Amino acid sequence: MKFNLKFNDIDEERNLKDDYSIKNLFDDLSVSGQTIVAKQNGELAVEESLINDGDTIQLIQIIYGG
After folding, report:
1. CB 21, CB 49: distance < 8 Å
2. 22-57 pLDDT per residue, tens
3. Maximum Cα–Cα distance for the chain, whole Å?
4. Handedness of CA 55, 5, 14, 12 (dihedral sign)
5. Please, are residues 26 and 34 in contact by the beta-carbon 8 Å criterion?
6. What does the alpha-carbon distance between residue 28 and residue 36 come to, in Å, rounded to a whole number?
7. Closest CA to 59 of 19, 3, 16, 18
8. What stretches of the chain show up as alpha helix (H) in DSSP?
9. What is the pTM of this model?
């Protein structure tokens, strides 16, 4: 079972662990849900969302400015 990850320069297929969530992915990448938004198959996803076989997960950096 695998999923696709798109984040910055990363565009790769990753092995999927059992009960693997967006939060687990954030932890593995050492990123924070306060600065990253996740899209799962084109739809916004919360950290508790489980990643399924064949999903595409896109992580988008939130940019703050003034």
Report:
1. yes
2. 999 999 999 998 999 999 999 999 999 999 999 999
3. 43
4. positive
5. no
6. 14
7. 3
8. 22-29
9. 0.91
- Rounded to whole angstroms, the Cα distance separating 3 from 11 reads 11
**What tokens does 48 get?**
């508790």
The residue behind tokens 């950096």 is: 61
Give yes or no for a contact between 62 and 8, defined as CB atoms under 8 angstroms apart: no
What are the E-state strand segments in 1-66? 2-7, 10-15, 36-40, 43-45, 56-61
Token pair for 2:
């695998």
Residues 6 or more apart whose Cβ sits within 8 Å of residue 47: 21, 22, 23, 26, 33, 38
